[in-house]
Amino acid sequence: MTSKQVLPGDEIAVEEEYVAAEGTYVRDGKIYASQVGTLVLDDTECIAKVIPCNPPNILKEGDIIYLTIDDCRKTMATATAIAAEGTDRSIGSSTVATIHVSKISPDYTDNVAEEFRKGDLVRGRVISVKPSLQITTKDAHLGVIRAQCGICKTELKAKGNKNLYCPKCRRSQPRKLADDYGDVKI
Which residues of the chain does CATH 2.40.50.100 include? Predict the structure, then answer.
């Protein structure tokens, strides 16, 4: 296996010896680099590929991500993915996500508005990226990690394992809370 740094357009191999893989393209029987990165010529598999130095943060199933709730309907919430756990890079794929009512809590829920509200910051796990980004919050460590009062915009405090209250308005609201609500640094 050989590896060296290449630039887009660099001739890296010929089709007679290697099969073009990710980060490459073929023209007139020759394989060229299509991106900046490290060339990997795998002699056992006969594959030529270029691995980027700084790959984009593409979401995949199982990733833990942070989202803001954009809208709640009876059976589904829509949200915008803002960050992925364990990486400093912004998300390089679609950031519009949905959370179906059946994927919110292990307990029975028939109304998304009882679990999430517009503007809530949520930690979720990616369960599907195709055809659309779909999220679950069923685990104890997943769910709302920060919320504000709908009236005075004061940050809500946890009251038990499923309720939030506003210290200013004295209102109480149910949510699907993560086990570390209010103690999260993104």
Answer: 2-52
66 forms beta bridges with 83, 123
Beta-bridge partner residues of 80: 68, 96
Domain 64-174 has CATH 2.40.50.140: yes
| Residue pLDDT, tens place only, 115-171 | 899 999 999 999 998 888 999 999 989 999 999 888 888 888 888 778 888 889 888
The CATH 2.40.50.140 domain(s) of the chain lie at 64-174
CATH number of 2-52: 2.40.50.100
HEC sequence for 64-101:
EEEEEEEEECCCEEEEEEEEECCCCCCECCCCEEEEEH
- pLDDT tens readout for residues 71-92: 998 899 999 999 888 887 778 7
**pTM of the entire predicted model:** 0.73
Cα dihedral 139, 140, 143, 148 in deg (nearest 10): 170
- Sign of the CA dihedral 105, 110, 112, 114? negative
Q: How many CB atoms lie within 10 A of CB 149?
A: 18
131 Cβ neighbours under 8 A, 6+ residues apart = none
Query: Rg of the chain's alpha carbons, rounded to an integer?
Result: 23
